[in-house]
Amino acid sequence: MSDYKVIDAGPALVVGAGLAGLFAALKFKVRPVTILAGSPIGSNASSAWAQGGIAAAMGDDDSPALHVADTIVAGAGIVDEAIARLVTEEAAARIEDLVQMGAPFDRDAQGRLVLGREAAHGRKRIVRVKGDQAGAAIMATLAAAVRAKDDIRVIDGLRATGLIMIDGRARGVWTRDAAGKRVAVVADAILFALGGSGGLFSVTTNPVTARGVGIAMAARAGAVIADPEFVQFHPTALDVGRDPAPLATEALRGEGATLINDAGIRFMLGAHPDAELAPRDIVARGIFREIKAGRRTFLDATKAVGDAFPERFPTVYASCIAAGIDPRIQPIPVAPAAHYHMGGIASDEHGRSAIPGLWVAGECAGTGLHGANRLASNSLLEAIVFGARTAADIDATPQGVRRFDLPEAPVGDAAEDARAMALLRHTMTANVGVERDAASLTAALADIMALRLADHGETVSAAADTALLIAAAAWTRQESRGGHFRSDFPEASDDWKRRTMTTLNAAEVIAAEALLGSVDRAA
Ligand SMILES: Cc1cc2nc3c(=O)[nH]c(=O)nc-3n(C[C@H](O)[C@H](O)[C@H](O)COP(=O)(O)OP(=O)(O)OC[C@H]3O[C@@H](n4cnc5c(N)ncnc54)[C@H](O)[C@@H]3O)c2cc1C
User: Fold this and answer.
1) What is the dotted CATH code of the domain comprising 237-337?
2) Is-above-0.85 flag for pTM?
């Protein structure tokens, strides 16, 4: 047996400490709960960076049915309607849970929640905190609540690298400590709340650790992966040379900020009837094409927000000022950035994956709520609804027996080859980005398969596996839908009006087919 430390996490192990993980941990009845936080709580979690807020049909003129309808339109024909119904119906109760936990949502003079409007929402339904502070405020509230519980144990600084599978069941996770030493953490039930995959792209709004590691770990153990090709590119990341790119929240466009190019032309007026408030993929492509044509693009909030900017959007204001831009009087340079992964580990209405013993919640899950494109502010909602649902399902699942022999630790190098990771991120943005085609996707698959052949360290290897799943599914889907735009197949096709369900083995076969096809054509 290899030499590694073993930690018994007890009945439930939550891997990841973003909104999905913390909310689930607080909802469990089974105790103790262990949270494995790769980084200290709140850091490296997209949840803490969310600016817009959480969507919930709570206005007098609103209903879950209207929220479902908007979700379906945004999702471009492949939203799982049953999932959308249950998420929107449970939204108000989960917001109430957050209120009870102490989340300081904005309220009006009568004490009612203030509801904001965002792109592609037919009603005002976004609960917020001080304009753009929702993520930071909610995460601070939940982190304090978790720390106050004696029966929730947080282990900081162990990075998960793989699933421990015994007799076809997930029994724990392999991790590395700060010194690179391996630690096995075992539990009866495992909940992945590992966040998104935006960090696989060189231009992203996500934390650097959001590299789809949950998808890679689950896929290697045989899980089904849903809709990996659907990545949402946020249209308005600040184009100021920072990695990750700071975000200029959608709410700014909701407030009336306009998109202009360096000739001062409002280019979205000709691109969509809703102009700046069109669905994200359309706005992202509008900006992408301006940039491709050699023009710079700006978000102009000088008239719509002006002097109120520091007070109403303090986070964006601070990012602008740090970059030498005063958004009260200057347009903000913007560009599209990988922002949200609609795809993830396929899961059912309880958050169960295809692997016994493994539940999933939050952005790493593929519930079908978002279809081909996420409606703004539906992701924090999904994180709390499925955080609660997975906790309830694990509570209701008979406890397993934690007496088993652990397998040999996997081989792999803890050190990351930074050049290999940079190459992977570059090829993802250049070839699997806002606009894709067969040639660019084949080029990406060639890069990814070459990276997988050499040993560049286990973080690169996991990132390459998730990248392979994304690029292979994008190569296969010969149409455009939602966040997936193929310039060689620019229309949606009814033949493709279905979700993708794939595996790592299937992605490898697709890559071989794509690469052999390109060799045949060259011969
Ligand atoms: C800038 C920005 C703004 C956004 N604004 C909004 C918004 O207004 N409304 C909305 O609904 N959505 C928004 N989103 C999307 C939303 O924030 C995310 O989808 C959501 O927070 C995901 O929550 P999560 O708990 O799944 O993941 P995260 O909050 O990303 O948490 C993932 C956790 O996993 C941990 N982790 C990662 N790798 C490992 C590892 N190997 N081992 C152990 N732990 C690991 C991380 O440290 C982190 O604790 C925004 C996203 C970004 C990036």
Assistant:
1) 3.90.700.10
2) yes
pLDDT of 14-49, one tens digit each? 999 999 999 999 999 998 999 999 888 888 999 999
State if residue 155 touches ligand 1 by the CB under 6 angstroms criterion: no
pLDDT tens digit sequence for 180-214: 999 999 999 999 999 999 999 998 999 989 999 99
- The CA-atom distances, in angstroms, between 140 and each of 2, 27, 314, 336, 357 are 39, 17, 17, 28, 30
Domain residue spans of the chain: 237-337, 418-522
What is residue 251's predicted lDDT score, i.e. its pLDDT? 84
User: Ligand 1 atom 3: the closest Cα is on which residue?
Assistant: 50
pLDDT tens, position by position, 385-410? 999 999 999 999 987 666 778 888 88
Q: In the annotation, is 280 catalytic? A: yes
Fold match flag (237-337 vs 418-522): no
* C-beta 16 within 6 A of ligand 1: yes
CA-to-CA separations, 500 to 284, 316, 345, 350, in angstroms, rounded: 23, 36, 11, 20
**Local structure of 185: helix, strand or coil:** strand
362 lines ligand 1 (CB under 6 A): yes
Mutate to test the pocket of ligand 1, among 197, 379, 458 (most ligand atoms within 8 A of CB): 379
Task: Pull the structure tokens for residue 447.
Answer: 């890069």
Give the residue whose CA is nearest to atom 50 of ligand 1: 50
pLDDT on residue 411 = 82
Q: Is 188 in the pocket of ligand 1 (CB under 6 A)?
A: no
418-522 has which fold? Methane Monooxygenase Hydroxylase; Chain G, domain 1 (1.20.58)
